[in-house]
Write a structure and sequence with these properties.
Number of helices: 6
Distance between the termini: 50 Å
Helix content: 40-55%
Shape: extended
Radius of gyration: 26 Å
Bound molecules: adenosine-5'-diphosphate
Strand content: 15-25%
Oligomer: single chain
Structural class: alpha+beta
Largest sheet: 5 strands, mixed
Amino acid sequence: MNIIGNNKIIDRLDKMIDNAIEGKPIESGFDENKISQLETKLAKYLNMNNATKEQLTIDRNNINRLISDISHQTKTPISNILLYSQLLLERPLSSEDKLCVEALVEQSEKLDFLISSLVKASRLETGIITLERKPENLSLLLESLLKETQTLAENKNINILFEKTDAKINFDFKWTKEALINIINNAIKYTHEDGTIKISVEKHELFCKIKIVDTGIGIDEYEREKIFSRFYRSKAVRDYDGVGLGLYLSREIIVAQGGYIKVNSKLNQGSTFSVFLPN
Ligand code: ADP
């Protein structure tokens, strides 16, 4: 085959791939030579690929609808359970009955939190939520995190120390805040009263490292990877409240931005969570 013939085929293949990328119909020539057979095979493959992409979009939309339905339809019953429980608590109750109603409130709040965490996890996994990385000041993020976690820390007389930083990197403010809040809330929850939490930032050429160090109960070595799985909770925290989704969500959020989370810990001495975010 001469150069002009080859160029024509290359142009057709190029157009075919462009069409596949844009989801347009894929056509091919049907000359009976080997390259054209290859062309036909490629057209078939790209058509199949487009059909799979369409099916994926349909599946993703179905999942999204299902998740929205679950979160929407459970909101009112859960609010009602909470409302009626509060009304009950305002009536004269025996101490035993009061304990039962309080447990009802606690469990309904846990269910509400569990559903909203599962909704977030599924939306992140299916790519329904896309994170928007923009240049932002890390100190603004850390200051707003401190404001939100202050009361929780004060209730346990835990001192949060925070080193100021002038680092400015690309990240999604809202979701990164959510990822770090989960880690800081854990640091507060799993640290005894009068403990300390230190938050610091190291700026490197290609990434920033946000370090959250606590003086809490620590994590056994064999559990350090497991704690990032859905619903994993260590045996040591059975008496603490929690659903085991916080770190899973944090990792999903950080990984979705090209970063990662590492943990170091000494049992009964404390843990260090390091969040790496690319610049
Ligand atoms: P939970 O709702 O149980 O806190 P997470 O997903 O946030 O769920 O954390 C998973 C598990 O990791 C916790 O149950 C706990 O066993 C462990 N963990 C997380 N952070 C800490 C910490 N700062 N100190 C000790 N253990 C921790």
